[in-house]
Amino acid sequence: MTALPARPPRPTRVLVAGAGIAGLVAALDLAEAGLTVELLETAPQAGGRCRSFDDPVTGHRLDNGTHVLLGANPAALDFVRRVGGRFRELPAIYPAVALDGPGGEVTGRHEIRLGSPMQLMRSLGLGAGDLLGLAGLLLDGRVNGPLGTARPGLLSRKLGQAVLAPLVRAALNIDPAAADARLVARMLRRLALAGPRGFRLHLAEGGLDAALIAPSVARLRALGVRLHPTTPLDRLPPPDPDRMIVLALPPTAAHRLLPNITVPRTSSAILNIHYAPDQLPAGMPEALMVTGGMADWIFHRDGILSITTSAADALMDRPAEVLAATGWAEIRTCLAMAGLPAAMPPVRVVKEKRATMRHDPGGEALRPGPVDRTRPRPDVVLAGDWTATGLPATIEGAVVSGQRAAAAVLRRR
User: How far apart are CA 278 and CA 281, in angstroms?
Assistant: First the structure.
């Protein structure tokens, strides 16, 4: 009788390289499953691109950017709950302002109402005819190429200007016409299936570190995970049948350690500008959407006014003082002055030149899965919002990638 081949030893230890969101999630899932986890991080603190810092100019603790969750981000919201984080859902009504150009004048104001699909349509001035192009995009499984080519004319219609363009810029961080049409369609289907609450914004209470990163680290430490800050993974350790490795690193760093994998090569920038006025006018909205200007969104929290501009590659080489002046002018215009002085308050400009991968068809084609049997190191699993999650490179995408990486490790058991 022929003996069955011996089953490979089941790993009991995991080395997770990278303490961004994907790495934190993978470490949490694996530690809760009973594995021994070590977590390495190159930076002095966990969080990756979701980080907070003490800014001497404004005198505040700032987030590098305003990272917003949507109601249609179930994995991310569940992660927040699991670690005892604090994100607050904003009201179902928030204002929107249209400008005639960067630093320009107001051409229109309206309220976006998220109570029901009909309320949303009416608040945007949309009728049934405006939704035909959107329905075609949602239902056509063959849609391919850049959105501007796959659905010519869609972005120039009222629906495209009022809904698609702001959503694509915010979620995919790319000019809508260049965005991968299949990814846009998947994103819209998820939003549609989530119902009215899927569009609701959720903001971190007290900043990203206090609301998410610090609770995550505390939970991991309670589970016995050892976190090693300022400890980069310079090379892969030799294979060990008792250990798996999760690379939750940026694509260039992962490719350096695994040269045979394909990774997205291009990126998209995000601009964030934080202002610290002496006082904020009463009754200000917590979130205000802007179209036609430099800013995409204006937020206020904890004494800070912030603007966020997605797909900001063209702004990266402009002087910080010029960007800050334009942003302050837009804030005063959009808020109808609201008692804000003409003189600009203390300000911090944050340019994230490689904020996300570039979500065009070329970039999407290069996203690898967490595992690949053709790789020379089957003990290595990939994680990161840039991997092939089927989602944009957002917090939700990072959480899903971390979950999938952990699941791949656990399947080896």
Answer: 10
Is the model's pLDDT at 8 over the cut of 70?
no
Nearest to 407 by CA among 48, 25, 74, 21: 25
Report d(CA 277, CA 279) in Å as an integer.
5
Strand segments (E) across 31-160: 36-40, 52-55, 60-63, 69-70, 87-89, 93-99, 106-113
Q: Is 407 exposed, middle or buried (0-12, 13-18, 19+ CB in 10 A)?
A: middle
Question: DSSP secondary-structure letter at 180?
Answer: B
Q: How many domains does one find in the chain? A: 3
> 26-30, 151-155, 177-181, 197-201: which range is least confident on average?
151-155
Q: With respect to residue 131, please indicate whether it lies within any of the assigned structural domains.
A: yes
For residue 293, what are the domain limits?
90-112+267-357
Query: Are residues 279 and 242 both part of a single domain?
Result: no
CATH number at residue 341: 3.90.660.20
pTM of this prediction?
Answer: 0.94
Same domain, 271 and 403: no
pLDDT digits (tens, 9 = 90+) for 370-393: 987 777 899 999 999 999 999 999
Nearby residues of 68 by Cβ (< 8 Å), 6 or more positions away: 170, 201, 202, 203, 287
Report yes or no on 187 lying in a domain: yes
Element (H, E) at 74: helix 74-82
What is the spatial distance between Cα 341 and Cα 345, in angstroms, rounded to a whole number?
A: 8
